[in-house]
Amino acid sequence: MICAVRSFALTNATAKCVLPVINSARQVLCGFREPSLGNRTTFSRQGSTMSAEGGGAEAKLAAIPDVEIDPDGKFKYILIRCHGPGDVSKDIVRGFAWAEYHADIYDRVAPGIEALGFDCECIGGGRIQHSRSQRNILVFGYSMGFGQADHSITVEKLKKQFPDYSSITFNNEGY
């Protein structure tokens, strides 16, 4: 079953994304859950308090790798924004061939970020065509659940990770 739309609740000052936690393949991916304080998969674009406060927060955030993708193939990817205290944030790219859905990547990555005391949100997704032997990467498409990522941000992160590649580009075509 393909999820066409994720559940989003919008208010004047807040955009919240409510992501279901998938415990088995039989659960419905588009299930809506009411946000609650105990639900760590509810994220807000407003400021929040978190346990990563203090001088070490920026160092912890910097220690999160900018890019983790599979070495070859065509696969789904997501762009995640990690939030530290105040205005501190960082975008990271994660892409893996094992993911059937973009949400599968997020569900696996988010707990690790949260364990460091940071909040995070998926700000979009797409696909990556990675050829290590030809030293090129193409970023394209969109996520049906999270929308299209800003591929230009993704490409800049990939260029820093793979400086010896001959071509790292994007287009907004295809799924």
UniProtKB/TrEMBL annotation:
Any Pfam family from its record, for instance, is Ocnus
Q: Which reaction does it catalyse?
A: N(tele)-phospho-L-histidyl-[protein] + H2O = L-histidyl-[protein] + phosphate; N(pros)-phospho-L-histidyl-[protein] + H2O = L-histidyl-[protein] + phosphate
Q: What are the GO cellular component annotations?
A: cytosol
The positions annotated for binding substrate are 76
Q: Which residues form the signal peptide?
A: none
GO molecular function annotation: protein histidine phosphatase activity
UniProt-listed GO biological process terms: cell differentiation; sex differentiation
**Which keywords label this protein?**
Differentiation, Sexual differentiation
Which Enzyme Commission number(s) are listed? 3.9.1.3
The keyword Membrane is assigned to this record? no
EC top class, in one word? hydrolase
Query: Active site at which residues?
Result: 102 (proton acceptor)
Query: What family does the entry list?
Result: Belongs to the janus family.
General function of this protein: Exhibits phosphohistidine phosphatase activity. JanA and janB regulate somatic sex differentiation.
The name this protein carries in UniProt is: 14 kDa phosphohistidine phosphatase
Q: What is the lineage of its organism?
A: Eukaryota, Metazoa, Chordata, Cephalochordata, Leptocardii
Which gene is transcribed and translated to give this protein? Answer: PHPT1
